[in-house]
Fold this sequence. Notes:
single chain, mainly alpha
Amino acid sequence: MCLALAVLLYRVGMTGSVARMLGLLLVVEGVTLISTGFIDLFLTPATQEASWYPGWLKAEEFVHTFGDCAMLALYPPFLAAALQTKLTRPFANKRIQLAIVGASGVLFFMVFLTPLQIGAMLLYLMLSLLFGYALVASIHAWHTATGITRDRARAFTLAFGFRDICWGFVYGGAIWMIRMGEYAVVDEDATGLIYAIYAFGTLFAVPLVAYGILRTHLFDIDLRVRWTIKQSTLAAAFVAIMFLLSEGADRLLSAELGNFAGLLAAALVVFFLAPLQRFAERVASVAMPNTENTPEYAAYRKMQVYESALADALLEGGISDRERSLLNILRDTLGISVTDAASLENDLQVHSA
Length: 353
């Protein structure tokens, strides 16, 4: 999932864009997660007794530690570019970024050259603090931003915030186990809860990130999701009625009555079609509130798409000729007037200043 989304982000993002920064971060996240021992869960006991298996474990440890250090180096600059608040702005400074990269490199070698109580514990402590800081920064951005920036911060908090909590808990647990002297048996004792929490953070975050990206670039993606929810609810109600009546009569009475009950269920479905459709509509409205397939809503979503693209182009302090050309094409494709586009750009420039 991480690698697939990273490829998509690389193809649609420009050099130095937040999309490509996120793509690189997702590659590191996927490699870090899978190298923590998930592959070993699928190996047979005979395979684990092979002569090459100790070397395999060492390679996993090397890759996983590299991923941890890369995450420590890449996540702060991404937070600065994605959230753009006073809490994350210092990490946009090139000198601070180079210092973080240097510190991450030192920690990588310390993990292998020093005891667990020094190198590994220090690395896990830094990662736990980083994930906690990212959660606080995203919540702060959510409450202080406005417009499309607030929507992004909210989506960021919901997706990455849950991942930050899960990963912070796992690395915090690793620190505790090192202090208690139990780190050597962690794989035996924690293949259930620890692995589940570690993986579930990413499994939860990636689909939400993907949906957020689609909702930003495809103005009617939320309408499509709403339609899918409505139709799925309606289909589920049909199947439930048919199954309960026909199978219930078949099991409790007889096969002949079961067939008759199936016909009765079909008649009931047709008779109650309108109430079922209204029920499905209510379910879709709860899942996707404030989403209606109207000209006004479509125009609003088109403006949000253009605002998102414009905000990305303004990240580096100015819009290049190539970016301006792409923005003009997008503006014309969405049917946004030149006046509205200029007014939106002025508002974003004032806000960023």
